[in-house]
Amino acid sequence: MTLPFFVYGTLRPGARHHDRLLLGRTATEEDALLTGALLHDGPGYPYAVRGGGTVRGSLVTPLPEAYAALLDALDRLESGAGYERVAVDAVRTGDGATVRAWVYLAAPGTAVGPLIASGDWFSHAPDAPRTP
């Protein structure tokens, strides 16, 4: 299944893994919200879990020719950090549309840190870029 990705931490534009993994491999990147989720702090990166909140991030659509390699690279990065890739029908774009997308949620049994009430990791992490 070919879907865009919702990213909310170190893969967002301006964050530490974005340029290494996504730069030059995407067709579009736009601000978006993941509904039905809560954001928690982690060991240098955040974890999203299902819940009654909203998480701020970016909807990233890979270039078709880069999709398979990017999916593999992201799966390797995220599975090693306690995430599982899940398809969700809960990503809202700036124009109000709801989009089906892949998102990496905390895998069952992963210990997550305190809740980030704002739902925006950039507003929380000391070394994260600031949202405008």
UniProtKB/TrEMBL annotation:
GO terms for molecular function: acyltransferase activity. The keyword Acyltransferase applies. It comes from the Bacteria. The keyword Amino-acid biosynthesis does not apply. Signal peptide: none annotated. Residues 5-121 form the Gamma-glutamylcyclotransferase AIG2-like domain. InterPro entries: AIG2-like_dom, GGCT-like, GGCT-like_sf. Keywords: Acyltransferase, Transferase. Its EC number is 2.3.2.-. It holds the Pfam family GGACT. It is an enzyme of class 2 (transferase). This is Gamma-glutamylcyclotransferase family protein. It comes from Streptomyces omiyaensis.
